[in-house]
Write a structure and sequence with these properties.
By secondary structure, this protein is mainly α. The chain has one domain. Helices cover 67% and strands 6% of the residues. It contains six helices and three strands. A three-stranded antiparallel β-sheet has the order 1-2-3, with no helix packed on it. α1 (2-24) runs antiparallel to α5, α2 runs parallel beside α5 (137-168) and α4 runs antiparallel to α5.
Length: 178
């Protein structure tokens, strides 16, 4: 129950910071023409910071979700073979892992791109228009982050059922999993 709350809170925090990052991202920078260069002046915003914070909460949610699956239940450990003998457990674990990777890509790609735009703001191309990162990717990453947390929660519920089933087995049946 505690791990479920931790995964939920971290997943919601990642979602909210991802949405804030998308909402705070400027449409474009201001072009300042110089002698043979274009300087891009971007408005002060927290979209890059929110993007990195969202990614950090996603990673923490993933770590908490993964750790919750293998944490000893009532002080007694369950072999991984007993947990993953069910196709449901293994498939939801795979989907939770995959959605975490996709969410991280959707959050990091525009965040790093926006960060690079802010750092490297002097260009020799006089036609440069001072763009920002792709619109919508941070919001999509935020929703994928929420999906990831939900899949970790479903995985935790399935693993809890597998643990209870394992503890109900007789001793001679448990030897099959060891």
């Amino acid at each position: 129950m505690q791990y479920a709350m931790v995964v939920t809170i971290l997943g919601l925090a990642s979602f909210l910071f991802g949405i804030f990052a998308e909402l705070k991202k400027p449409a474009s920078g201001h072009v300042i023409s110089g002698k043979g260069v274009v300087i891009c002046k971007y408005p002060s915003n927290l979209s890059v910071v929110y993007g990195y914070i969202s990614t950090a909460f996603l990673a923490a949610s993933c770590v908490a979700g993964y750790y919750s699956l293998f944490y000893p239940y009532k002080g007694r450990a369950v072999p991984r073979a007993a947990i993953f003998c069910s196709r449901w457990c293994s498939s939801y674990f795979s989907v939770a892992s995959a959605t975490t990777v996709v969410a991280a890509a959707f959050l990091l790609w525009p965040t790093v791109q926006e960060h690079i735009h802010h750092i490297h703001n002097i260009h020799t191309d006089l036609e440069f228009t001072c763009p920002t990162a792709k619109t919508g990717l941070l919001g999509g990453g935020a929703f994928m982050s929420l999906n990831s947390a939900l899949f970790w929660l479903v995985s935790l519920m399935l693993v809890t059922n597998a643990r209870e089933d394992y503890f109900e087995l007789e001793e001679n049946e448990k030897k099959e999993y060891i």
